[in-house]
Every structure is written in structure tokens, then in C-alpha cells.
Design a protein that fits this description.
304 residues; alpha/beta; six-stranded mixed beta sheet; 6 helices; 23% strand
């Protein structure tokens, strides 16, 4: 069977365009993010992101998954700029976006942008339903992509996420659907689902409820961002199994960041006798050289 290849990148933190921060934002959480960005802009480098995207396009994956934080302040101007950036990657049908906490930073000053509708401009990249709601299931080759949204507005100094009871109930039903049983089930969200991956002020509030759903129905792989680190972990699956969980650093992080930019190629192959195998190819910035290169590869079975 042919190999289906999914590219995973996260947290590009695109540079804010002119007008991304206005005087009304002085009275919202965006002010704190504006102050923080003055330091972070030395970490998030547009040229690094451009090099990573060029490297990704040269590899020619079948589908691209982006696990959030395209913006910094979640302003109308930033959302519009991020939409144009997404369009530059190729057809929306070949790219799935799971929003991050920075993409939902504040609701103030954004009339009608409550709930999932705040992401309406990104509808073509959220799923195939033609509307902004979660979860959505996209069928691509041998893969069923379960796209979740953990992005919600939070209080100052918090970067927590939440899926909510309604989204978790829909995910529970979707993962139980026998229509997806023989596919490679890929779950995508911004916040890591495993304990201890990030500090409490950055964690997923209802991660235990998500793990309970995954333990009931299983999945083949969970992808996330948010931590700005390369993370390899797992969460419990059905009957004592383990579900691998992978996170990547920021796609725009230079050598001054916690972890230089990386992206993953997930190579999924359907076995002749049923089931799937997957190999991870890691590409990114090497500390001692210019450009991006292959940093390693491993079997997904080795993770658990």
C-alpha cells in the first residue's frame, strides 16, 4: 500500500501586521501580550518560518496539520493576515488547523465572535463541514483526522485550554463510530493532553475528561503544540494499551528559543493484514548549521 504522509507544525506566531494592536486593546489582555511580544519577537523569526515552510513544501506531504497559535493577539487584522498565510500553503482541503490559545486571546472588541465562530475566517481549514465547530472529522487517504479546539479566552497571565463537555461528548461519539474503526485515527489539538507536559497555568483544564474518552475508544496518535518543545509522551488507551502523543516546537523559533524550530513528517502505511504502521521523520533547525535538515527518524511503535 502507498505511504500517506502528514506534515505537523505548530505555533508559527506570525509577525503582527500593522494595525494588529489598537487603542481599544489597552483595556484587554492583548496589552499584556503586546508587552510579551516585544521579547518574543527575538525568538519568533519570520525567516526561520519561511525556511521551514519551504522545506515542508519541498517534501510534498499529502496533508498538513497545524496545531495552533498562528496569531499573537487574535485581532481581526492578525486573523486576516493568518488567513492569507494559510492560503499561501496550498489548497485548504490539504491543510487542517486546530486553533491555539493565542488565536482566542480575548473576546472584547470583537462583536459576534463568541464561541467557535471567532474562527469563522478559517472555516475551510477547520474541516469539511463548511462551518466553524468542533470536533470535525476529515477523511484523508487511510487517515481520519479528529480536529479539536482547546482555544478559549482566559484571564491575564493564564494560557489554559478547555474542550468543554459538548465537544467531548461529540468526540466520544465520533471515536466510537465504526465507520472510522479501520482508519488511522489522528487526534489534533493545541494543548497537550498528558499530565506534566506544561505548567498548570498553561494546561488543558479538562484533560482528565479527554483522557477518559481516549481510554474508552482509543486512537492511533495525538498531535499538539503549545509547549514550544519537542515532546514525546503517551496517554492510556483501551485494555491497557497506550496512545502515543507528539508535540513540536514553534515553527518560527530560532536558536534563541527554548527549542529551535522543527516539523514532523508522519509516514502512515496500511498493513496488508490490517492495521497501520507509522514512522516519524524529524526535520528542523540544527544548532550548529544553517537551514533545516533531517534530525532523526523513528517508528511510532517505539514511543509506546
Amino acid at each position: 500500500m502507498p505511504i500517506y504522509r502528514i506534515a505537523h507544525l505548530s505555533d508559527p506566531h506570525l509577525p503582527p501586521p500593522r494595525g494588529a494592536f489598537g487603542w481599544k486593546d489597552v483595556f484587554t489582555k492583548r496589552l499584556l501580550s503586546r508587552i510579551a511580544w516585544r521579547k518574543k519577537r527575538k525568538v519568533h523569526q519570520p525567516e526561520v518560518l519561511a525556511a521551514l515552510v519551504a522545506d515542508l513544501k519541498a517534501a510534498g506531504p499529502d496533508h498538513v496539520v497545524i496545531s495552533g497559535d498562528l496569531t499573537n493577539f487574535a485581532s481581526h487584522t492578525e486573523i486576516a493576515a493568518a488567513t492569507k498565510w494559510l492560503e499561501s500553503l496550498g489548497p485548504s482541503s490539504a491543510c487542517t488547523v486546530s486553533p491555539g490559545n493565542h488565536d482566542a486571546l480575548s473576546d472584547k472588541g470583537r462583536a459576534g465572535a463568541g464561541g467557535d465562530e471567532r474562527f469563522a475566517p478559517w472555516t475551510p481549514w477547520l474541516g469539511d463541514a463548511g462551518e466553524a465547530h468542533f470536533p470535525q472529522v476529515r477523511l484523508r487517504g487511510p487517515v481520519a483526522i479528529f480536529n479539536l479546539c482547546s482555544a478559549v479566552p482566559t484571564a491575564p497571565h493564564l494560557a489554559t485550554g478547555r474542550l468543554g463537555e459538548a465537544q467531548l461528548q461529540r468526540l466520544d461519539a465520533a471515536l466510537a463510530d465504526p465507520a472510522y474503526r479501520d482508519l488511522f485515527r489522528l487526534v489534533v489539538l493545541h494543548h497537550p493532553p498528558q499530565k506534566g507536559a506544561v505548567s498548570k497555568r498553561k494546561s488543558l483544564d479538562d484533560q482528565e475528561a479527554l483522557r477518559a474518552v481516549l481510554a474508552r475508544h482509543g486512537a492511533d496518535l495525538v498531535l499538539h503544540g503549545h509547549a514550544h518543545e519537542s515532546l514525546v509522551g503517551s496517554v492510556p488507551g483501551p485494555n491497557g494499551t497506550a496512545i502515543p502523543v507528539l508535540g513540536v516546537p514553534s515553527a518560527s523559533s530560532g536558536r534563541r528559543g527554548h527549542s529551535p524550530a522543527r516539523w514532523h513528517v508522519i509516514e502512515i502505511e496500511t498493513r496488508p493484514n490490517g492495521g497501520h504502521s507509522a514512522r516519524i521523520v524529524v526535520r528542523g533547525v540544527e544548532a550548529a548549521q544553517e537551514g533545516l535538515s533531517e534530525l532523526g527518524r523513528y517508528s511510532l511503535a517505539d514511543v509506546v
